[in-house]
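Q: Could you write out the predicted structure for this multi-component system? I'm mainly interested in how the pieces pack against one another.
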Amino acid sequence: MRLFSALLIGLIFGTGIAVSGMINPAKVLNFFDLAGSWDPSLALVMAGALAVAMPGYRLVLARRAPRFAPEFQLPDTRLIDLRLVAGSALFGIGWGIAGFCPGGALPALGSLRPEALIFVAALTLGLLIARGLKALAARSPQSA
Amino acid sequence: MSTGFTPLASLAGGMLIGLAAVLLMALHGRILGATGILAGLMRSDDARDRSLRAALLLGMVLAPGLVLLVTGDWPALEVPVPMTALIGGGLLVGIGAGFGGGCTSGHGVCGNARFSRRSITATLSFLIAAFATVHVTRHLIGG
C-alpha cells in the first residue's frame, strides 16, 4: 500500500504535468517569451497547483503525522543566501535554454522521446557536479 | 513556433500537481520536488527510502502512456531547441537546482504553498532568470 500509493501519486503528478503543458518545452519557452509568441498558460498551472496545495498543506500539516511515516519531513533551513539565489538563477537560465525543468522532463521520459532522455542525463550529471562542488566547499575551512 | 492558450487544461493539470503534492505530504510526509526525488535516489542507502522514490518516478513515467490510453494521443511535446541546448540547459538546471535546493515543483509549488521565504526567493530568482534568458536567446542573439 505504501509503494502503491507512491506510484499513484507519481502518476497523478505526471498526468498533471502532461495535461497542463509543462511536459512540452515549446509551451514552456513560449510562456517565457513575453516579447514574442507569448502563451500565458503556465501561469494557470502554478495558480491551479497552489490553489490546491495551499489549503491542502494547511489541513495535512495540522495532523500529527503522515499515514505511512513517523513524521513530516520539512526543510529545516531558513537561510536565504547566495547559494539559494544564484543556484536558482542558474536553474532558471538552464530552464530558459532547454525548456524542460525536472518536473517536466521526468514524466516526459515515458513518452519515449530521446530529447527527454538526453535532458535527464545532463540534469543528473549537473546534480552530481553540484554535489561534488558542495562537498569540496564543505571541506575547505574558510568557505561559507 | 506558437502554442495555443490552454487555460482549462493548464488549470486542471496544475490542480492535479497540487493534489499529488498534498497526497505525498499526507501519506508519506514528503515534499514533492522532482529534483529532490531524483537526487535522493542517487544518494540514499536506505532501501525503504529508495523504493518510495523509485515508485514515485515510475508513476511519473507512466503518465504519458495513461494520457495516450485515455485520449488516443500522446501529450503534446515539441522540442524547439537543438541537442546542445538540451545538454547545456540540463547541466545548468542540475547544478542550479543542486545549489538552489529545489526546482519548480519543490520550491515553486510545495515551498510556496507553505509560504517558505526561501522558496518564494528561489521562485522569483528562477522565473526572472528564465524570462531574461528566453528574451536574450530569442530576441537579442537568436533573432
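A: Regarding packing and overall arrangement: Helices of chain A lie at 2-20, 25-32, 41-61, 82-98, 102-108, 114-139.
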